[in-house]
Amino acid sequence: MLSRRNFVTGLAATGVIAPRLFIPTAHAAEPARFDDAVAAAGRAKQATGAQFWSEIQQSWAVDRTILNVENGGLQPAPAIVNQAFFQAWTKANEAPSYTNARVLWPQVEGVRARLAKAFGCATEEMAITRNTTEGFLAVALGIKLNPGDEVLTTTQDYHRFHNDLLQRQAREGIVLRQIKLPSVPAEDIGAVVQTLADAITPRTKVILLSHVFQLTGQVMPIREVVQMARPRGILVIVDGAHGFSHVAATRDGLDCDIYATSLHKWLSAPHGTGFLYVRKELIPTIWPLQPPTDREPTDIRRFEAIGTASAAPYLAIGAALDFWEMVGVERKRERLVWLRERWVSRLAGLPGVTLNTSRKPGFAGAIMSIDLAGLPPPKLATWLWERHRVLVAGVVHPEFRGLRVVPALYTTEAELDRFADLLLLARKNGLT
Ligand SMILES: Cc1ncc(COP(=O)(O)O)c(C=O)c1O
After folding, report:
1. Which of 21, 114, 161, 206 lies 20 to 30 angstroms, CA to CA, from 94?
2. What is the predicted pLDDT for the residue at 12?
């Protein structure tokens, strides 16, 4: 068979001017033999560190004049995701009644299938939502609870969700009970599960638990809690806002029945995207927040009836999934822990430094809560922002206080080194 090289050489030999072919250097240097290929693969592996991550970091068009370690609320999307979003947005505007409604929305079914695969559930158990809040509220306000029925949660769960349930308490007489976990951080999984189990009463119908606590980054033992609660007939609603695409998060790994997450956090999908997983048998037992007129009670799409909306953000979830898969699911997870360790290892163990997050494997991802003695977190956060353009959250909770530090995949080593330098400076000299 005529190879490309022979073909091009052959053209030159006949005097025919060959077209200008763009051949990337990597192709020109393709190893000819198997041994060379193995050696090249070894070299490539060594190079993955710096070069691979620097290319990943450059996939985001973020403002690097700000050192942003406040990626807990909302993360930026890589340029390729924004491009997919704008492409769909533009298409939608060509003839909206046709292009948005009849061309683009049907394509969202492909995104549903991919999200279901990534989470490890059936396509028919996956609802696409605008955020965790939308998914959580569909379930928390849509399940049947009688006056006196109890929802059990912890003092570290998302404050807003407590308020949502307090409305049910005021309106319908359900009871919201918040309990303290044994310690911060809580490194004894058995003790965590037992503390919840001990708080259960005959009226407990629901447990609301974060997969990852927002303020400390502690990963909760969801699987163990579900397996403790299920035989007692208690539904566990998992608030997965900080779980999916950050720490290990699959349906079977967690063995959960309900999981609501935001994709604009750790997946870096467009802002206003999330998903709600509902185990198949439970779908008909939950009343949707916005009643869908034409859906069967078993149809997961009944939780998506939000009226006219753009398909663009949902479609661009596909590009965010591509990006994640390209990085590698496990590799991303490991990288996020590595980024955390890059800065925290320089402070851990120093006098006056308290970590509210465990560094033991499996207990946290990228989020870390750190307290420096004598430096109130809100003041330290203000000093970092006003004097150094470092964006970070200062947290004061009745059980702990600290800076909540959240790097993301786009954060560079140099940024984290500078961040650690600044904390060491503040620790030594105060907020001067
Ligand atoms: C633990 C937790 N749950 C839920 C939410 C709500 O997420 P969203 O505003 O994307 O719905 C957040 C937001 O930061 C959170 O930290």
Report:
1. 114
2. 34
Give the tens place of pLDDT for each residue, 257-274: 999 999 999 999 999 999
Q: Classify residue 254: in a domain, yes or no.
A: yes
Q: Whose CA is nearest to atom 12 of ligand 1?
A: 241
Q: Are 388 and 204 in contact (CB under 8 A)?
A: no
Compute CA 78 distance to the chain's CA centroid, rounded to the nearest angstrom: 14
What kind and span of H or E run contains 116? Answer: helix 105-119
Whether residue 152 sits in one domain with residue 275: yes
Of the listed ranges 252-266, 287-301, 330-344, the one predicted with least confidence: 287-301
Give the tens place of pLDDT for each residue, 169-216.
999 999 999 999 999 999 999 999 999 999 999 999 999 999 999 999
Which protein residue's CA is at the shortest distance from atom 4 of ligand 1?
241
Q: Which residue minimizes the CA distance to atom 10 of ligand 1? A: 131
Q: Do residue 118 and residue 182 come from a single domain?
A: yes
Residue 130, CA distances (Å) to 6, 135, 137, 163, 271 in order = 55, 8, 12, 20, 8
**pLDDT level of residue 153 (50, 70, 90 thresholds):** very high
Locate the ligand 1 atom nearest the alpha carbon of residue 134 and give its number. 11
Is 62 part of a structural domain of the chain?
Answer: no
**Do the domain assignments include residue 351?**
yes
Do residues 314 and 358 share a domain? no
Query: Which SS3 state, helix, strand or coil, does residue 208 take?
Result: strand
pLDDT of amino acid 6: 35
13-22, 186-195, 324-333, 359-368: least confidently modelled range:
13-22
| Ligand 1 binding pocket mutation candidate from 132, 213, 369 (most atoms within 8 A of CB) | 132
With a Cβ cut-off of 6 Å, ligand 1 is lined by 73, 131-133, 158, 210, 214, 239, 241-242, 262
Q: Into how many domains does the chain fold?
A: 3
Cα–ligand 1 centroid distance for 328 (angstroms): 25
Which of residues 273, 305, 323 is at a domain's end?
323
Which residues form the domain of 24? Answer: 4-57
DSSP-derived pairing of the beta strands 204-210 and 235-239: parallel
Report whether pLDDT(123) > 80: yes
The closest residue, in CA terms, to atom 13 on ligand 1 is 73
- What ligand 1 atom has the least distance to the C-alpha of 133? 11
Residues 406 and 308 in one domain: no
At 390, is the secondary structure helix, strand, or coil?
strand
In a shared domain, residues 123 and 228: yes
Of 266, 295, 323, the residue that ends a domain is 323
What pLDDT does residue 11 have?
Answer: 30
